[in-house]
Amino acid sequence: MSPSVMLLIVALTAATGAMIQRLSGMGFGLLSVPVLVVVLGPVDGVLVVNALAVINAALTTWTVRQFVDWAKFRIIAPALFVGAFPGVWLIRVLQPAPLQITVGVLLLVALAVVIGGARFFPPVEGKIPAVIGGLCGGFMNTIAAVAGPAITVYAQAARWPHATLAATLQPLFVVSGAVSFMLKILLGAGSVESVNPCLWPAAVAGMFIGIATGAVLSRYVPRQWARRVALVVAGSGGLAAVVRGVVSLG
């Protein structure tokens, strides 16, 4: 694949992910990771999404800050940090093909949770379930850039109001993305040097275009329609990552 084509795909992926998230509220990572893992590989693809997710969530955090449950944030955020360490270890020990399969499987599991799996968990209360949700979120975000589903399972079981969940996820995404990105760099599980330098401005530009486009389209596009598109894209990408990883094993 030529560098220009790769940059175009990355920019379009970032734009689409940001646009659909603006329309449906679904995770930026669920949409971006499947494509970028296939294009850039399981390490670089997730690393790029980790960095972009920090910017995307930081912008959203500012707009919903009054709805954030900062007490819950202070419980879950440290757990995200701890949960990232086993994810970094797994990245370092797995070969590219098994790692790509792992990323694809985690994406499909996350997708199943988003579709409706979280509703089957019994009600919970107290700090321990919140910490467990944070640990799982930190691990999944480091491997596959999808912290949201694990935290959503806990939040739904703890009966968070939807507005609180949607808002509190944003600063948690900032923390999980930043922690995953920095630990990979510091512990040798990833490197910005392996990523084409031109990719970063292309991806950031695409993301901002997607946010702006989503803001305009949100007046006309039904939320449920955007959600269905997001689910189809995420599911297809997760399957593609698994298939490509399995083929690479041979």
Can you characterise this structure?
The structure is a single chain. The chain is mainly alpha-helical and 250 residues long. The chain has one domain (3-249). The chain has ten helices and no strands. Helix 2 packs antiparallel against helix 3 (42-64), helix 3 (42-64) crosses helix 6 and helix 4 packs across helix 6 (127-144). It starts with a helix and ends with a helix. The mean pLDDT is 86. It comes from Corynebacterium mendelii. It is a multi-pass membrane protein. The chain crosses the membrane at residues 33-59, 71-91, 97-118, 130-155, 167-187, 199-217, 229-247. Keywords: Cell membrane, Membrane, Transmembrane, Transmembrane helix, Transport. This is Probable membrane transporter protein.
Descriptive keywords:
10 helices; 250 residues; mainly alpha
Q: Give a count of the beta strands, DSSP E runs of length 2 or more.
A: 0
Number of separate structural domains? 1
* Global mean pLDDT: 86
Query: Treating each run of at least 4 consecutive H or I residues as one helix, how many helices?
Result: 10
Question: Which of globular, elongated, flat, extended, rod-shaped describes the shape?
Answer: globular
Which stretches are poorly predicted, pLDDT < 50 over at least 5 residues?
A: none
* Radius of gyration over all CA atoms, rounded: 17 Å
Helix content: over 70%
Structural class: mainly alpha
Give the oligomer, counting copies of the same chain as homo and different chains as hetero. single chain
Task: Report how far the terminal alpha carbons are from each other.
Answer: 22 Å
Give a quick account of the main beta sheet: strands, pairing sense, barrel closure.
none
Output the helix-strand order.
HHHHHHHHHH
Q: In percent terms, what proportion of residues is strand?
A: under 5%
Keywords: Cell membrane, Membrane, Transmembrane, Transmembrane helix, Transport
Subcellular location: Cell membrane
Protein name: Probable membrane transporter protein
Transmembrane segments: 33-59, 71-91, 97-118, 130-155, 167-187, 199-217, 229-247
